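Action item from last meeting closed. Structure (456 res):
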């Protein structure tokens, strides 16, 4: 493969990093174009690759009962860099996979910069390239210039929604006489995992006062012509509160599966959970507390939470516009732009939502590009697999008129034969989905590796 042309990847986030790793490991010379730190965004703080700007969680790691856990498994089987570095920088999270965000992005950056087939070039790409081999993986914060170029090429406005990030507090500012450590339902195999979350209990009166404060707080204003089309998996807490006073108590503030270590006989009416955000345990993020409140209002409102009265914030929440393609109409099943097939797209800009889903689409884009450069055809994985279900959804399975960002979920998978539906049979059904997916993913991966060996 010595004469293989270079593969250019625009964007060094999760998807771009994974795409680069996969292609480079197949002998392709890769150039990552990353505009940071020369051109910043409101959410990024460093110039590192794969920087995490929202939660530090990769969500459930259960590969038998959870679709995102299955996606973790598939990426690990494919030698995914993002999962390897997540595992090596993991924090206790009670059955979920959470990471030390700084250690994680530093590790990804170090591995890619050390790879002999990878080089990183700083600078913004603001126009669509007219030739060469490209993957655009610029994520939710695509620069204005490139976003406009994409819109001109596709002949349609990029769809948009607004994404909110949660605040982070310093651990030494929390009142541990009020707060206790416990994962919901004591999930986790070790004591550290079973106590991976901090819990702030609320009485009914405290909860009602908190909801009143949320509703009354100053919020970020939208610019003229913008609409707040939020992705349901990342709703600001104020938007949830506006949908009904009990919405938060049945969402991120649900009190189930928890027993107050300080007052075991008292059942909390609502609970705010905090999850460790770094390996040192000095930072915690407010789980599910994405917000569009203005900074001053955030501090005032969050300090009404029991145990956070004296909280100091390492980062307050924020809101940003997020753009993505109407992929069912614009991309083929190789994630190539139909009008310019030398350009692939990967990650959140394709209409998947979440760190893991974005990385998975980067993994596929990198492998597909490497195969094409070697004169091979790499078909998409079967739709019964987690990655196959996602790529099928974004490149044709979804309804184009109502296309919205999507997390991986079993609703995207073809039904199982001979397995009953309904809540009662859910455990067996989910196990059936994951067993089937693992067999088919292993077969697809084996076939891809054999094709690579024959053409090497």
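Sequence:
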């Amino acid at each position: 493969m010595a004469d293989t042309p270079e593969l250019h990847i625009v964007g060094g986030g999760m998807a771009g990093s994974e795409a680069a790793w996969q292609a480079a490991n197949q002998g392709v010379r890769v150039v990552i174009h990353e505009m940071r730190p020369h051109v910043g965004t409101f959410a990024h703080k460093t110039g590192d690759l794969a920087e995490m700007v929202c939660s530090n969680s990769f969500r459930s790691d259960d590969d038998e009962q959870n679709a995102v856990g299955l996606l973790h498994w598939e990426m690990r089987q494919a030698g995914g860099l993002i999962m390897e570095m997540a595992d090596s920088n993991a924090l206790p999270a009670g059955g979920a996979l959470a990471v030390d965000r700084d250690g994680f992005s530093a590790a990804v950056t170090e591995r890619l910069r050390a790879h002999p087939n990878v080089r990183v070039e700083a600078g913004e790409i603001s126009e669509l390239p007219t030739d060469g081999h490209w993957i655009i993986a610029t994520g939710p914060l695509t620069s204005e210039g490139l976003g406009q170029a994409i819109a001109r090429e596709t002949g349609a406005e990029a769809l948009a929604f607004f994404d909110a990030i949660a605040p982070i507090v310093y651990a030494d500012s929390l009142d541990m006489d009020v707060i206790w450590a416990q994962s919901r339902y004591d999930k986790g195999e070790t004591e550290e995992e079973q106590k991976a979350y901090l819990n702030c209990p609320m009485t009914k009166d405290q909860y009602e006062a908190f909801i009143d404060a949320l509703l009354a707080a100053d919020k970020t204003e939208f610019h003229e012509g913008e609409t707040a089309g939020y992705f349901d998996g990342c709703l600001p807490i104020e938007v949830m509160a506006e949908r009904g006073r009990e919405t938060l108590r049945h969402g991120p503030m649900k009190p189930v599966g928890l027993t107050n270590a300080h007052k075991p006989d008292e059942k909390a009416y609502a609970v705010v959970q905090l999850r460790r955000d770094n390996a040192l345990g000095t930072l915690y993020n407010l789980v599910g507390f994405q917000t569009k409140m203005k900074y001053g209002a955030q501090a005032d409102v969050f300090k009404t939470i029991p145990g956070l009265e004296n909280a100091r914030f390492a980062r307050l929440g924020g809101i940003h516009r997020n753009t993505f393609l109407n992929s069912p109409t614009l991309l083929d099943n190789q994630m190539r732009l139909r009008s310019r097939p030398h350009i692939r797209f990967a990650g959140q800009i394709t209409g998947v939502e979440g760190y893991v889903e974005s990385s998975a689409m980067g993994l596929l884009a990198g492998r597909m590009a490497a195969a094409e450069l070697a004169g091979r055809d790499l078909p998409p994985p079967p739709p019964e697999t987690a990655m196959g279900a996602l790529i099928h959804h974004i490149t044709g399975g979804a309804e184009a008129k109502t296309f919205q960002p999507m997390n991986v979920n079993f609703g995207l998978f073809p039904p199982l034969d001979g397995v009953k539906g309904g809540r009662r049979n859910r455990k067996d059904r989910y196990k059936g989905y994951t067993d089937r997916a693992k067999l088919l993913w292993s077969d697809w991966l084996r076939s891809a590796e054999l094709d690579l060996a024959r053409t090497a």
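Note appended to the action item: The longest helix spans residues 426-455.
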